[in-house]
Design goal:
The complex is a heterodimer of chains A (about 450) and B (about 290).
Chain A lengths: L1 H36 L11 H9 L9 H22 L4 H24 L13 H28 L19 H27 L16 H8 L2 H33 L5 H9 L6 H11 L6 H8 L15 H26 L3 H9 L4 H12 L1 H17 L2 H6 L9 H10 L4 H32 L1
Chain B lengths: L1 H46 L3 H7 L11 H9 L2 H32 L5 H13 L3 H13 L6 H24 L4 H9 L4 H29 L3 H6 L8 H11 L4 H21 L1 H11 L3
Helix pairs in contact in B: 1-12, 3-12, 4-7, 4-9, 4-11, 5-7, 7-9, 8-9, 9-13, 11-12
Classes of the chains: A mainly alpha (about 450), B mainly alpha (about 290).
């Protein structure tokens, strides 16, 4: 009987506490929004704390760590985390509410200090912005939410005695163990990969030249990119060409070769190795070697054509019409072996009994391939296509080495590199990167959703 | 009787047709393979000849002289030896860094149930697929701000960080296949979590680590983009960026350039010849999912 009563009361307290946690969550989220999006150092929306943070991270001279930058993001993120913790684990809700209270007091103290000492070194300019007033309200909310847990507390008092004695805590609570493994790599990853990804979005809205302070210019980089810039259009078209070739030629050729090599054959190993040997070569080496093959006067190809009596020898990389296809050909040369390996691995995983059953049922070779093997290879095909898309969007090295983007061979990645490091239009380059990101996000999203599905079924 | 004879005749006919088919397949394959190896063959031939010889007699002529001089010039005059050393100085620490860190996060993601597990996993996968140009400018700024610009450290850090995603993805999926009973047994015996990871999980993950390490070695070694962005001094350049410099120096002296390119390939060629099995495994591991 007693146990049942206990249970009911604890359910009650839990719901009370998680109400407090919800308020905490709301306040923390609002604090985050106030910090990032609201005018902070004045009335203009661009003078917000996020800009301050970006300037700080990128070492713009004259920026210093102000209290707002130090306290508010930490408080908001910690507040969200605490509240989520409390909501998801009701038995910890009280502790979460208590810690949120402490955060609220901290933020409140900051607001009061700013109000009371407007001439001090605390962010006096902050008072002018809507961000500040929101912060003040949020701080009050974070303090007030704890009040809801008080009745819950009172109800729990009677239960304290009935609880079984707790076992001594181990040195590290087991719950923290995964995070201790996760944290060191995660920190590196956040600083070098995740944060820069977002920072590029900010940079794309500025006119940064690599030296002076970036100035906010809104969407004008994108406007220029889409309306005037011919090179951008050229690069986009070339990327699409690259993509079109990449998802058709190496894919079918790799699949064909994999089907041939999948059956035992004499010398199969030698043939296989020949096809995937380009994979270990760096793009720098491939670019140089192919540039030599394409050499209009002495290169292998024209020397051969010349000796065959072709009078009008093409200029290959020097020819505006041909150059991009020449570069793509070099890329295809490398890619075929990769696709072949992936398909070979996929074929190895196919259950032979399925194929045998189809043969017994009288399927001819075409139908066997079309209706049995190909559907079974579908997961591999997805991977191959995603890899082809990503690789063709990333295409940079070969263009940079073979033509430096000249002769109408510009691609987005190299265009961006040249704008940034040859013309010092970093902000503009950022806009190109964002476009590139947007295009690849479509495919990444598609691939990720597939993986998510797999994981949830697991 | 008649049916038997018919059958025999039919099999006979198919046998010859099969033989012809097989022969055609071999001829076609051989032609294609030779075509595929042609660029490598061309580089080899060129590197042993002199530019004068090629210019006067043409590419397809029988070489008048064969010389090692191009290799010697590329190795010492064009400093391919120094560039190769730089490549190793950058690649080896990156390799150890990424293997260690990613095996830690993979262990956490594969072996523990905690909130955010899947989120972090997807974050790593998404990061792997990102076009790295999106990171270019901020990483350049960050490197400058931290005073790491134009140091080996800048390249080691970005390679370690950028490959973390892929390595975590591969290792996490591999660690999931390790039977949990082994780890539970150790846990029951009072073994600490870090010891379980270090003394039980890592040895069991060794096949994946070997395959992944081989693949990552070639990737980091062959990187060109970060090499030209984060390092400026000629004395720090890895071999990929060094080759671009070499091309600028020996503008039309293709034998020296191809000799340099071939020398630059030696380490990865070594990997390809001796660790080929791991290399192939690494490639397929990543797409296993």
């Amino acid at each position: 009987m007693a146990a049942i009563t206990d249970y009911r009361i604890r359910e009650d307290t839990a719901s009370d506490v998680s109400g407090a946690n919800f308020i905490g969550l709301l306040c923390s989220a609002l604090l985050f929004i106030a910090f990032i999006f609201m005018p902070w150092h004045g009335t203009k929306i661009v003078d917000n704390a996020a800009k301050l943070l970006a300037d700080l991270l990128s070492g713009v001279p004259g920026t210093q760590i102000t209290l707002a930058v130090a306290i508010l993001p930490i408080a908001s993120i910690a507040g969200v985390a605490l509240a989520l913790w409390g909501v998801l684990q009701p038995e910890r809700g009280r502790l979460a509410a208590l810690l949120t209270l402490i955060l609220g007091v901290l933020v409140l103290a900051y607001c009061l200090a700013v109000l009371l000492f407007p001439t001090g070194s605390l962010d006096m300019a902050a008072v002018g912005g809507a961000g500040f007033w929101t912060t003040l309200v949020v701080a009050l909310g974070m303090v007030a939410q704890y009040a809801i847990t008080v009745p819950a507390l009172r109800r729990q008092v009677g239960l304290e005695a009935a609880r079984p004695a707790r076992r001594r805590l181990p040195a590290i609570p087991p719950k923290w163990v995964p995070y201790m493994f996760l944290l060191p790599p995660l920190l590196l990853y956040l600083v070098w990969i995740i944060a820069p990804t977002f920072a590029t979005f900010w940079l794309s809205l500025t006119n940064w030249d690599g030296v002076s302070t970036p100035g906010y210019v809104g969407l004008s980089n994108f406007e220029r990119l889409f309306s005037i810039d011919r090179t951008f259009r050229e690069a986009l078209v070339n990327n699409v060409r690259w993509l079109a070739i990449f998802i058709t030629v190496p894919t079918t050729m790799g699949l064909g070769l994999a089907l041939i090599f999948n059956t035992e054959m004499k010398g199969g190993r030698f043939y296989k190795v020949s096809f995937y040997s380009p994979l270990v070569l760096s793009f720098a080496v491939i670019g140089l070697v192919w540039a030599w093959l394409y050499n209009p006067r002495l290169g292998l190809i024209n020397a051969l054509l010349g000796s065959l009596g072709v009078a009008d020898l093409p200029g290959w990389l020097g020819d505006r019409e041909l150059a991009i296809w020449c570069v793509i050909a070099a890329a295809v040369w490398r890619q075929v072996g990769y696709v072949m390996i992936l398909y070979l691995a996929g074929l190895k995983n196919i259950d032979p009994s399925l194929v045998e059953a189809a043969i017994v049922d009288g399927a001819d070779r075409w139908n066997l391939f079309r209706r049995v093997v190909l559907p079974l290879l579908a997961p591999v095909t997805t991977v191959v296509i995603v890899i082809s898309i990503i690789d063709s969007l990333r295409a940079f090295d070969l263009v940079a080495i073979m033509t430096r983007g000249g002769q109408s061979t510009q691609v987005l990645a190299n265009f961006m590199y040249m704008e940034a490091f040859n013309n010092y239009r970093m902000g503009y380059a950022g806009a190109i990167a964002v476009v590139l990101f947007g295009i690849s996000m479509v495919f990444i999203g598609f691939y990720l959703s597939r993986i998510v599905k797999d994981e949830l079924e697991y | 009787m008649t049916t038997l004879a018919q059958t025999r005749r039919v099999t006979g006919a198919t046998m010859t047709r099969q033989q012809i088919g097989a022969a055609l397949k071999y001829i076609g394959l051989t032609a294609l393979t030779l075509l595929w190896l042609l660029p490598i063959f061309a580089a080899l031939i060129t590197s042993f000849r002199t530019m004068d010889d090629i210019a006067i007699n043409g590419f397809w002529s029988i070489p008048g002289v064969l010389t090692f001089q191009n290799f010697q010039r590329a190795w010492t005059d064009a400093q391919v030896n120094k560039y190769l050393l730089n490549s190793f100085i950058i690649t080896i620490p990156s390799l150890f860094g990424m293997m260690f860190l990613s095996s830690m996060s993979a262990y956490a993601l594969a072996r523990f149930k905690f909130r955010g597990n899947l989120f972090f996993y997807f974050m790593y996968v998404a990061g792997t697929l990102l076009p790295f140009q999106i990171l270019l400018l901020p990483v350049f700024r960050l490197t400058n701000a931290l005073g790491l610009y134009n140091t080996y450290g800048a390249l080691i850090l970005i390679h370690t960080a950028f490959q973390l995603g892929f390595c975590t993805f591969v290792l996490r999926n591999f660690m999931r296949t390790v039977p949990g009973e082994i780890l539970d047994a150790a846990r029951v015996d009072g073994c600490g979590e870090f010891r379980i990871y270090w003394q039980i999980m890592l040895p069991l993950t060794l096949p994946a680590l070997a395959a992944l390490g081989t693949l990552e070695f070639t990737w980091v070694f062959n990187d060109y983009l970060w090499a030209i962005i984060l390092v400026q001094s000629d004395s720090l350049r890895p071999v990929t960026a060094g080759l671009a410099t070499l091309r600028g120096q020996y503008n039309t002296d293709w034998p020296v350039i191809t000799a340099g390119a071939l020398l630059a390939t030696l380490p990865t060629l070594f990997v390809f010849v001796f660790l080929q099995r791991y290399f192939i495994q690494g490639l397929t591991l990543g797409s296993g999912k």
